[in-house]
């Protein structure tokens, strides 16, 4: 019984785990890897879309609570 409760707590905390997002934004550049222009643009667009999604989620949550 206690094991299932611990697993439920772990699953619920995983929904609000934004560590992967922070790792994506604040990782060090690999000096051995020289990405081409297309790859840099793809990662730039991905970063912009993640930020827009998080902003929209925050705005939506604030509007729902008011």
TrEMBL record:
Keywords: Membrane, Transmembrane, Transmembrane helix. The keyword Transmembrane helix applies. The chain crosses the membrane at residues 44-62. It comes from the Bacteria. It comes from Imperialibacter roseus. InterPro entries: DUF6728. This is DUF6728 family protein. It holds the Pfam family DUF6728. The lineage of its organism: Bacteria, Pseudomonadati, Bacteroidota, Cytophagia, Cytophagales. The keyword Transmembrane helix applies.
């Amino acid at each position: 019984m206690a094991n299932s409760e611990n697993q439920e707590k772990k699953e619920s905390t995983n929904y609000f785990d934004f560590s992967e997002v922070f790792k994506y934004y604040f990782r060090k550049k690999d000096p051995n890897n020289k990405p081409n222009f297309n790859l840099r643009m793809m990662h730039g667009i991905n970063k912009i879309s993640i930020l827009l999604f998080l902003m929209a989620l925050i705005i939506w949550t604030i509007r729902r609570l008011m």
